[in-house]
Amino acid sequence: MTVVPPAAAIPPPPLGPTASLLRTTALSHTYPDGTTAITDLAIEVPRGSVGLVGANGAGKTTLFRLMLGQMFPTRGTIEVVGLPVADDPVGIRSRLGYMPEHDCLPNDQSAADLVATFGELAGLPAQAARQRASDVLDLVGLDEARFRPVGGFSTGMRQRAKLAQALVADPELVLLDEPTAGLDPVGREEMLDLVGRLADFGISVLFATHLLDDVQRVCDHVVMIDAGRLVVAGPIEALVERTGVLRVEVGGRADGIEALVSALAERSVAAVAVDAHIVDVDISGHGDEVLDVVRDLVADLGLRLYALSSRHHSLDELFVEAAQRP
Amino acid sequence: MSAVAPPALGGAVYDRGYRPYEGARGGRSAGRWALWRLTLRRALGLRRSWRQKVLPWTLLGLVTIPAAVDLGVRYATRNTPLSEIGYEFLTFRDYVGVSTTLLLFVAVSAPDVICPDRHDRVLPLIFSRPLTGDDYVLAKVGGIFTLVFGFSFFPQVLLYIGQMLVNEDGSLTYVGDHLDVLWQVPVSVAILALYYSVVSVAVASLTDRRIVGGLAFLGVLFIPAIIAGAIVEATNEGEGTIFGVFNLLNLPLMLRDVVFEGQIDVDRDSGLSGVAGAGWAALLLYVAIVGTGVFVLHRRYREARL
Questions:
Q1: Interface contact A93-B48, CB threshold 8 A
Q2: Which residues are CB-neighbours of B88 under 8 A, at least 6 positions away?
């Protein structure tokens, strides 16, 4: 049996004048009751899979609403897929798919009807919408349940149906708001697999969540916000590289760790003793030569080197550190 | 003898991958039409279980029964002069809004097309499409308007064509004698349909429970009608009172009478006999109520919330 790949590579959908997926300048939004949801947000995010990370109330949903043209910023500008939202706040939605966090499906419709309806609402002709509904339900694994009422679906199936309606009109960008919320571990894995495949189909993803593990698994870039302010943004690989820690385990002298920390400090390398035998050396901002420095110092101090392992920060640590900075 | 490679098995798994859509796309108007079609389907119970079809189709069937009965009687007595039949046929004017089943249909279907969107929190999905709140209102009101208009107009067409065909003086004579009806019926049916659709959808938009929406719609029409009726009763017989115009149940029928007869209170039972300017008052009240309904709907859906 042979597996036949797709006949041709899928061309990426046309983007606007710039390749940015999302670009904001001094973006601020204050609700009529005085609550400031976003403050001076300035980010530029390339296309691909992007994680939007923040705690509840951080401003993720407000940012989605601004992207969908459902609200206007109090100050600043916002461009989505290269197009200023203010120029055509309704038309921009035909380029986007949206999967809300909360339950939002009409219970008495079948999955096929539901997804086709949302295809039609996005402007697809009725027949094309039904065909697309069939295709995307197949894609999300609901092909056998397509004629069942959504009201009888499990949480995982409902999440898939929500994803299918977001994809039915073949958007350039899908906004996913906590797509793994409420899913069991298996369901979560399957949803992450699906989300991870979207970029391969030429569909960019903005994935809002407070679960950094999910972002690290499926996204290339991350934007972290807290209380409406940008904490950190950039390619995940670069962020975790740059904030790496070298864990050094030594033996020998009783005061060996203190001596090593002091010696490293003299060479402008920050280090923290974890216990009597382990020290974490901050290698961010240093090149590979810092490894030689550590090795040489351990030898000079007469210590025995048991282990030298590079340890990168997780996104969780990065978020906490960055959020705590003044 | 060399070994022969076995032939490749015939089966193949085709990974179709994801196929982007490259066909035509409509804009806002396409979305609006889709929402309008969805409203019609939902109100009629199409693509839904048979239980959801029973009530609307029964009510709509009942609307047509008087026309069918009239037509049957007229056909059975086609060789008898009208004056000798001894049966009072419905006039086109009578048929506009004559059936309370249409009112019941609106009380059932308007909340059904509005309330679940709010109850099931579907609105954020709808407004993530290229649609505004006003598009949504237009499609929903338009859907109910279309159904009320269609099911008020269809029996009239049936009645007209049937009477034309069995007319003892010939079909063309019948058409010539009833030319006015050709504009009076659609105009008065449109007045009724606009009133029912805007008021019912506006009232239903204020709640996410269908039963509350339906009862509230009936209450909005019946309670003022009862109060206005009591005031009319309390006045001296023969003397009209302008309060009669606040019978909101009959308000579109008052305008129907203006369209058909050029005057209000044709049947002399509205309590508006001899009241100067009653027609204008009815028209103003009609415009105010429909305007209020539109305002409520615009405010209710002015901002699409996630």
A1: no
A2: none
Cβ contact A121–B19 (<8 Å): no
Which residues does chain A have within 8 Å of residue B25's beta carbon, measured at their own beta carbons? 94, 122-124, 169
Kindly report which listed range (A29-43, A137-151, A302-316, B245-259) carries the lowest average pLDDT score: A302-316
Chain B contacts of A71, Cβ < 8 Å?
A: 303
Instruction: Please count the residues of chain B.
Output: 306
Residues in B 6-35 with any Cβ partner in A closer than 8 A: 8-9, 11-21, 23-28, 30-31, 34-35
CB A228, CB A58: distance < 8 Å: yes
B130 close to B39: Cβ distance less than 8 angstroms = no
CA A60 to CA A57: how far, in whole Å? 7
> What are the residues whose beta carbons fall under 8 Å from the beta carbon of B16, sequence distance 6 or more?
A6
Rg from Cα positions in chain B: 26
Which tokens belong to A314?
């997780």
ipTM: 0.83
**Is A153 near chain B, with CB under 8 Å?**
no
Spatial neighbors of B193 by CB under 8 A, at least 6 apart, are B144, B145, B146, B148, B149, B152
Chosen from A70, A71, A107, A121 to mutate, greatest number of chain B CBs within 10 A = A121
Of A10, A124, A202, the CB nearest to B25: A124
Please give the structure tokens belonging to residue A216: 């690290």
Torsional sign, CA A135, A141, A144, A146: negative
Mean pLDDT of A83-96: 93
Pair A96, B34: CB distance under 8 Å: no
Q: Sorting pLDDT into bands at 50, 70 and 90, what band is A8?
A: very low
Q: Which of B195, B24, B34, B265 is nearest to A115 (CA)?
A: B34
Does residue A188 have a pLDDT over 50? yes
d(CA B143, CA B41): 9
Q: Is A194 in contact with A140 (CB distance < 8 Å)?
A: yes
Please state the rounded mean pLDDT for residues A103-113.
91
Cα B41 to Cα A12: distance, rounded to the nearest angstrom:
36
pLDDT class of B248 with cuts at 50, 70, 90: very high
Distance in Å, alpha carbon of B101 to nearest chain A alpha carbon: 25
Work out the widest C-alpha separation in chain A, in whole angstroms: 78
Contact between A114 and A106 under an 8 Å Cβ cutoff? The reply is: yes
Å from B51 to nearest chain A CA? 12
- What does pTM read for this prediction? 0.83
Q: Report the sign of the C-alpha dihedral through residues B171, B177, B182, B184, in that order.
A: negative
pLDDT tens for each residue of A236-287: 888 876 667 888 999 888 888 899 999 999 988 889 898 888 998 888 777 7
The tokens for B121 are: 């929190």
Token pair 């028209």: residue: B283
pLDDT, tens digit, for every residue of A11-27? 444 444 446 899 999 99
Contact B92, B184 (CB under 8 A): yes
3-class DSSP state of B120:
coil
